[in-house]
Amino acid sequence: MIKDLLKKLSVFTAACIMAVSVGCSGSGKKDDSSSEGAKKPEKAETLVFTENETGTLDGYDYELWKDNGDTTFNVEPKGGCFSCEWDNINNALFRRGKKYDCTLTYEEMANISIDYGVDYQPEGNSYLCVYGWTREPLVEYYIVESWGTWRPPGAPLALGTVEVDGAVYDIYKTTRYEQPSIDDIQTFDQYWSVRQEKPAPNGTKIEGTISVSKHFDAWKKCGLELGKMYEVALNIEGYQSKGKAAVYKNELKENGAYAEADDIKVKVDEKAIEKLSAADSGGAPVEAGFFDIGFEKGVEGWITRGGPLVTVDKENAFEGKQCLFVSGRTDNWNGAAIMLSSDTYKAGEAYSFRAKVMQKSGAEVTMKMTLQYNMDGEKYDQIALAPAKSGEWITLENNAYVIPDGAENLQLYVECTDSLTDFYVDEVSAGEKS
Known about the structure:
5% of the residues lie in helices and 52% in strands. The protein is mainly β. The longest helix has 11 residues, at 270-280. It is globular. 48% of the residues are buried.
């Protein structure tokens, strides 16, 4: 699957996240199902869950997934209805829809749509959306109808727009690197449709229709191919926030044989697709051991964090002919990251980290080097922090940084904490403590 999001996203990410499906093997992201905290009455009445759970009731699959925090998920006996509440969480998803057996693409199925009615009351980062996954390729997808304080996914480039169901949605593609998925830890793409404007509520209630297959058709025109269907669900997601929602209407419809939509307006931004393709051509991410990188051979394993473009620049290098350029940031935590090998970097031990950074915003900003790691959810720890005057290279360094005990899945990244400025990185090194 939000703000500080991919820091955290990452979509809103984002996409994420699930349990093993009925008739479709898989494990991983949001798949830590448990019956603890559940009450399962024998009669057809509301099921109440406070811990991770997945199941089927009245023809609709349901799932609660969280990494930590306080959640309540009320699954109603009628159709796809449910209510939920969350507080003190890192990330939580409450959803109800259909899980499939990963044998058919959406074009081989019926025309899918969802009629919804939701009393939606988020406080902070949250999505109201259609959510799901495909395999072959592995893709996590979101059709975002409304959101809390942060509009996902934080990517700098929309690949196009689609006008459907009386609204205009921006189309995005983001990538999650070595993150939990329905197939364990994987690198996978996220596809997004995000409404340009939230639907007008009646108080806190929002109603409408989401023509799911038509969004898939629009994505295809932008070069975003889905695989074989795993899930379509109406989803309420919260990220480092609190809130509540009551889904009083959730009708998933599968009408007739699929037919390509002829009543949608799709605009494809070829230049944006070109720019994103150029950024993606930097190569697959690597798990780095000790390193000393000057970016003379390209991005050398560095990846986007939160969606900005991460490319090489040939005009502003600190040394040599090239440096790394991070552009199109939409939030302060957006930046560039490199994954650290667990064979080299051990929790509880100290290491030396150093990087040259520069920005040209015209004002002084704060640059930061951070470690992201997993330990009961995503955590973040400052390695180095320094003010940076416009147009001047500075050094971020810590010669004896201790990796927190119990930390796993380490990522080193550079960000700017108080500005959305583009910035440059050069001469980055990591090794034994000085």
